[in-house]
Target: Metallophosphoesterase
Amino acid sequence: MRVAAISDTHGRQNWEMPNCDVFIHAGDMTGSGSLQETAAFAARLRKEMESANGPPHAIIVPGNHDECFETLPRATRELFGPNVHVLEDEPLVLDGVTFYGSPWTTPFMLWRFMADESRLAMLYQNMPTSVDILVTHGPPHGILDPGWKVKHAGSMALAKAVADRQVRHHIFGHLHGAGGQLVQQGTRTFITSQRATKNTGLSINLACLKPTTVFEYLPKFHLRVGRIPMMPNACFTNLYSESSLWLQKNRRR
Model:
């Protein structure tokens, strides 16, 4: 299975669709949150999926800018095709791979899909004990989550939910300043889709300066390099640069 992931396109249509089996958007497809802007994204996605090399499945997790998913849920979901799976605190199994999607972030201004830590803790109770690929719009606390005027803006409840479960990969966006960074924390490595990893000592060639980042994912062993879990921040719009998709090549053995 080849999985491509992106987030925070905010209405821009200059993102790319590589050859993949599953396409993931981790939230903030729109800037305004309008039904019209969401329809434009849905039309672009549908066109890509119907092309000769288009992915058979797509997974969508709304973000805090995607207002119509919360205010007009039925009309918004009807914009997407039958193989576009909108995940709001729910699992999905494709070819034996378990995905789980959740749109929530910690409160900031008057956006959508925001909740305090106590409510987030209750929401994350629905998460299965074992998840191959977790997709959330917001990051966990302390992992690629620099905030505005705060050091960490990620959710502590999400961090605990991930720590308490077997999560192989965690894809998120939301905080643009973290895009394209790689950090190592204990035995885990957390990777994003923007910028080069030149200041890390890890022998992983992510080709981050190219439009698409490619690496191998082995379902039974996490990653070939170090066999350690990954947490990418898939932001497309970045404070420092614009890049393209985060692409994960997933091979079975």
DSSP finds five helices and 13 strands in the chain. The chain has one domain: 2-250. Residues 2-250 form a domain with the Purple Acid Phosphatase; chain A, domain 2 fold (CATH 3.60.21.10). The two ends are 11 Å apart (CA to CA).
